[in-house]
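Re: the pair you flagged

First of the two:
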Amino acid sequence: MKYILSFSLVLLFSLGMSNSTFAQAAESLEVKVKGVGCSKDVANIKGNLEKLSGVSSCEVVKKGPTTTFAVSYNPEKIAVKKIYQIIEDTGDCLDPNDKPHRVQLK
């Protein structure tokens, strides 16, 4: 009986530690994007980022010709470089073949 109780406590402690490890895996990134022409461009970029596996959310912080997005992501599932690539591969609202969006690096 003692062994079952000890095993249960160890198992519960291990599960509790693994959950906090997952919670710590999320990071946030503020991305400034040049060339955003309209609200549809903002919505398209936001939607494309939120479709990505590893991105948990994308919020618009500031709209304008240079729009700022706050992206929450799991670095174990997606690289920042991939997030930048998706932004820059998002087509313009008037011409989807035109790729005017550029990530502004510091």
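Second of the two:
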Amino acid sequence: MSRLITEEMVINEVIRKYPSTIPIFNRYNVDACCGGGFSIKKTAGEGGVELEPLLEALNKAALGKN
């Protein structure tokens, strides 16, 4: 399945393009404010967040399925 949002994308860019992802970043405690200038993979990894469930939730939100 092709994803709109990938682990390499920068958080601030994702939020700008898909504002519906903000609650997902908050739910997973991924710093979308101060650390938003880094990739999803880097920020999630530093926060100990599992990447795959986060990406699934972000993509569902981007598609309006959350």
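The chain has four helices and no strands.

-B.
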